[in-house]
Amino acid sequence: MIALRDPIRLIPVLFLGLILIGTGLLSLPFATADGGRAPFIAALFTATSAVAVTGLIVVDTPVYWSQFGQWIILALFQIGGFGIMTAATLFGLMAGRGFGLKDRMATQVERSRLETGDARSVLRLVLFITVIVEAVAMAMLTARFAFAYDMSLPSAAWHGLFHSVSAFNNAGFSSFSDSVMSYQDDALILGPIMASVVIAALGFPVMQDIWRHGLAWRHWSLHTKMTVAGTAALLAFGFVATLAMEWSNPGTLGPMGIGSKLLNSAFHSVMPRTAGFNSLDLGAFHDETIMTNFFLMLVGGGSAGTAGGIKVTTFLVLFAIVLSEVLGRRDAGLFQRRFGRAIERQALSVTVMAVALIFAATTYIASISPLPLDDILFECISAFATVGLSTGITADLPPTALLVLCVLMFVGRVGTITVATALALGKRERPYRYPEENLIVG
């Protein structure tokens, strides 16, 4: 039995258990629309994707799964998103307990300026924000579906609920077969989805900091400043890149008016941050746009939220390290604060492990599948970063490749929390140091 005092082992076990329960429920005959049992790999892949709040699918969600099956999927990504966000926050706090004041000020592992003794208030605030954001988004979407598209109120409410929960949890699942491509000209549909994704992708520590201090920048923690500034910069970059590269593409933005081009470029700039909805056909994107998405997906969103990827703060720490080397500075830092060596090593470790895992998975899948390498790489990054975007090859992959993607989704979602926490809690000082010697680098 795993002791509660060891959260590093407890987190993956709990989420693995949830995946197995979801797989069992989706394997029931009445979970599918035709009443037959879903193949094991389809049930396992869907459950993993839902619990890891990814959104990759091998079967058409609203067509293949029954209403019961779709409710199970919704419950899985709601529990997965809420549980991961809560676990990331609380175990980030626990990572801070093991250090003295000096180390706490230098350590930023999946947490921000949070008090270690207020676990109940943390959980209450997580629940409050989740319910409020999802309820507001659901109300807006339900009203739009009902009054603008002549849906019955029960149908509009279902689609509103499904998309609001999916958006806030960055799950990317849709109750429509084409995701939200049918609503690519409707800002009142795309807008609430974008807003929910961005709020959740900031991460709970940022939400809590803003809740306490409002928009007073000077009172924000370094973590919040880096996350907000980094998120804004990446959203702007994604928007400009998509707009410029796809402006004349007849398969994406080309046929649209200026307003729709701006709207869909903005929407797509948000989605690679691990949301997974698409209003454009990714399979028709230019290669340079796909390359841009590699970067955006790998970075992901904020720490201790529902987003995946290596996280915005991790990327900015690496950026600051490179900048300090180029400028010849002794310390790396941002916003008039320097990073501790432990933070720099954690950022490097998480990034190297992520890249290595994606490389290994891509190489293996390419060896057993005739599909294009760039599509496979896109799929692997999307799975690891729990994005859910796809160029359309997921269902064409062999079963062993789908199992590899399941591992990527699980490790990418749960592993980033456990690895970062383990690095913080596992800090051990040797009573000795080896002699230093220079070597040639580069």
Automatic annotation (TrEMBL):
- Any idea which UniProt keywords this protein has? Cell membrane, Ion transport, Membrane, Transmembrane, Transmembrane helix, Transport
Q: Where in the cell is it found?
A: Cell membrane
Q: Enumerate the transmembrane spans.
A: 12-31, 38-59, 71-95, 122-147, 187-207, 228-247, 294-327, 347-368, 401-425
Q: Which Pfam families does this UniProt record tie to the protein?
A: TrkH
Q: How does it sit in the membrane?
A: Multi-pass membrane protein
Major localisation: membrane
Q: Decide whether keyword rRNA processing is in the record.
A: no
Instruction: Say if the entry is tagged with keyword Disulfide bond.
Output: no
Q: Which domain of life is it from?
A: Bacteria
InterPro entries named in the record = Cat_transpt
In Swiss-Prot or TrEMBL terms, this protein is called: TrkH family potassium uptake protein
Q: Which organism is it from?
A: Qipengyuania spongiae
